[in-house]
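User: Just a sanity check before I run the rest of the batch. Below are the structure tokens for the first item. I only need the designed sequence back.
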């Protein structure tokens, strides 16, 4: 049996090319895009304004390529973690976070990760595969709460900028008016700091929010917990962030995971404030403080609530805009860094 190609993950110009190849009228491309991204059908047969002949032509080579999650775990705080199967034997997680008027989905971009940040569960499991645009998009399209979604964050498993082309295709479809039409201002991408890719992203014309996983106030501390710092140090990273802001006008957001005894002293908070002032001056910046979430087999621990508050207060007193991120779904291991790569055998 031939493997059918998924339509989900194709842009409008690509759909236009397909209908041309199949000698279908040009306007059917828009109809197909609307069935895929607006009405979110699960099969070509449901595209009822296409003639039976055209549906059967499409069916010979293509499928919609939407796959419902295989498992859902609900937290008492309303967060829901979904498990999606990708390919034959891989799984990824996506986390749905309803919050008043907002509803955010945290999506994964890779199964596993190559970056090996020392405090992260995903990194601990090594790298398996890059997700295709179809597989990233499916986390949204096949989400039971899809129609309530207002925001998307690429903060799940994987390093999005290490899967650059598929992530750009995903962004094109998620944000474009012909497709999902979630505004770029409602999309964030989090990276550990691949400087060459940050510069490329700045030129793509997707005005998304860039979140930088900084996690340290000096190279010595950062290299200890984030191997990527040996390739691009803090100076190179913050220069790239400044270029990103100057090009896009989008406020940079920094993530700073507080690890007890590693990076959470008052001294380190002061150094961080000076670092940010030095590079960003009066440009708007926000620091998201994340109390370390527990991960198995890692030697790190979270500080007390008072330690976290002291760090946050020190930044604010030095006029650096900082807030503490709420822990979400702790009872279902849905917080930052806790998503894992489940093999079918131990699912
Ligand atoms: N590869 C991307 C996305 C990673 S997950 C990146 O590095 O930014 C999103 C955030 O969770 C990152 O800031 C990551 O460093 C952080 N994180 C990872 N493990 C964590 C843990 N155990 N506790 C708190 N935050 C963690």
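Assistant: Here's the designed sequence for the first item:
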């Amino acid at each position: 049996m031939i493997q059918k190609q998924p339509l989900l993950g194709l842009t409008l110009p690509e759909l236009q090319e397909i209908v041309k190849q199949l000698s279908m009228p040009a306007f059917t491309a828009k109809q197909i895009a609307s069935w895929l991204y607006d009405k979110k059908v699960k099969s070509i047969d449901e595209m009822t304004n296409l003639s039976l002949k055209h549906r059967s032509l499409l069916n010979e080579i293509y499928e919609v390529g939407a796959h419902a999650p295989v498992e859902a775990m609900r937290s008492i705080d309303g967060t829901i973690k979904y498990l999606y199967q990708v390919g034959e034997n891989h799984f990824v997680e996506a986390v749905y976070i309803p919050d008043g008027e907002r509803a955010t989905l945290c999506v994964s971009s890779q199964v596993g990760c190559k970056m090996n940040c020392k405090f992260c569960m995903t990194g601990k499991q090594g790298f398996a595969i890059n997700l295709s645009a179809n597989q990233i998009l499916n986390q949204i399209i096949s989400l039971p709460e899809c129609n309530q979604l207002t925001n998307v964050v690429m903060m799940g498993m994987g390093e999005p900028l290490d899967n650059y082309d598929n992530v750009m295709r995903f962004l094109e479809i998620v944000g474009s008016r012909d497709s999902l039409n979630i505004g770029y201002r409602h999309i964030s991408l989090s990276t550990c700091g691949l400087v060459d890719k940050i510069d490329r992203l700045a030129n793509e014309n997707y005005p998304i929010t860039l979140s930088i996983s900084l996690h340290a106030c000096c190279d010595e501390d950062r290299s200890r917990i984030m191997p990527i710092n040996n390739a691009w140090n803090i100076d190179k990273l913050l220069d790239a962030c400044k270029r990103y802001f100057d090009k896009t006008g989008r406020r940079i957001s920094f993530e700073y995971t507080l690890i007890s005894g590693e990076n959470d002293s008052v001294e380190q908070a002061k150094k961080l404030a000076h670092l940010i002032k030095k590079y960003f001056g009066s440009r708007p910046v926000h620091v998201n403080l994340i109390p370390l979430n527990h991960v198995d087999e890692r030697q790190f621990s979270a500080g007390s609530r008072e330690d976290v508050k002291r760090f946050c207060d020190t930044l604010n007193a030095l006029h650096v805009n900082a807030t503490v991120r709420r822990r979400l779904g702790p009872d279902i291991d849905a917080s930052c860094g806790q998503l894992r790569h489940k093999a079918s055998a131990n699912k």
